[in-house]
Design goal:
The protein is mainly alpha-helical and about 130 residues long. The protein has a domain of about 55 residues: Multidrug-efflux Transporter Regulator, Chain: A, Domain 2. About 65% of the residues lie in helices and about 5% in strands.
Length: about 130
């Protein structure tokens, strides 16, 4: 089994040692200790932090991540609750994606409108231009 120091682990997972210590303080990760009481991490810890980063990437709030970690530590009896929590985050993330798509669509129309203004193929206001797409 490969053991990684906090610096090596930080490089492996793309986080700072400061962030890893914060995660440890928040009980999101639990490093093991060697015979000299120095923390070390394993490949399993790399996978776990990778999953935590996926949760964070969905926009999952820190208190939700903490709740998930606490539930996970309680074992399989909490699977239904964990699933519900992840489902809630998934629905919220999908709504945010849809909202972002709408914003990007308007942005694309604005860019197209500017192109039309520059090449003189559009002489209407942006508000009137947008009516074409409603």
């Amino acid at each position: 089994m490969t053991k990684y120091s906090i610096g090596e682990f930080a490089n492996k997972v793309g986080l700072t040692t400061y962030t890893l210590r914060y995660y440890e303080k928040e009980k999101l990760i639990l490093p093991k200790r060697d015979e000299n009481d120095r923390r070390y991490y394993t490949e399993q810890d790399i996978k776990w932090v990778g999953f935590l980063l996926h949760l964070k990437g969905t926009g999952m709030l820190m208190n939700e991540i903490k709740e998930y970690v606490q539930l996970r530590a309680q074992g399989d009896s909490t699977i239904k609750i964990r699933r519900e929590l992840l489902s809630k985050v998934q629905h919220r993330s999908l709504a945010q994606i849809e909202e972002m798509k709408m914003h990007l669509k308007i942005l694309s129309h604005k860019i197209d409108w500017y192109d039309g203004k520059l090449d003189k193929s559009i002489d209407e206001s942006f508000a009137d231009y947008l009516k074409r797409f409603q």
